[in-house]
Amino acid sequence: xxxxxxxxxxxxxxxxxSGVVLIIFSFVFGPGLYAQFSKAVDVVFAADVGYGxxxxxxxxxxxxxxxxxxxxSPDQSVNLGNSVSFNVIASNFNNPSYSITDSFSxxxxxNSNISSTGSFTWIPTENDVGIHNIVITVKDSCNTIxxxxxxxxxIPETPxxxxxxxxxxxxxEK
Length: 174
Description:
By secondary structure, the chain is of the alpha+beta class. The protein has a domain at about 65-155: Sandwich (Immunoglobulin-like). About 15% of the residues lie in helices and about 25% in strands. The protein contains 1 helix and 7 strands; from the N terminus they run αβββββββ. It has one helix at about 10-35, and strands at about 70, 75-80, 85-90, 95-100, 120, 130-140, 145-155. A hairpin with a 4-residue loop joins strand 6 and strand 7 (about 145-155). The radius of gyration is 36 Å and the shape is rod-shaped. The termini are far apart. The model is unreliable at about 45-55 (pLDDT under 50).
């Protein structure tokens, strides 16, 4: 069996040397360190740069700072070829980004239809005739809100070219 012996003299000498070094260090550098770290310092976290601020830390904002988003227009019906436009009104977001998805299979709507300020503009084509259930996502580093709008693209009614035109007989409609 192997036994190890530690000399208490060597151990005591090392501890005494470490203690002396620590005492000398505290006398030489102690007052400067104490003066440097004893001042009251305000520590500011991510909440100082806005709720989110691009940091991974996302504090719960007070009620008046909760992010909100709404659309400037309700659901719409539009004739083929006419322009559709509305705005996303976002408040209390920190540099919001906007993205858009459409449930319509052959849609011409994409993220280029919505600007960095939340303005949506679109002119439907013949392939867009039908019902579009659109979801607009507004988000920043801490918050995400999805808004829904329905846009129905219809073909405008035009008179049939073979429909007879009756002359005005002077009779009044009742």
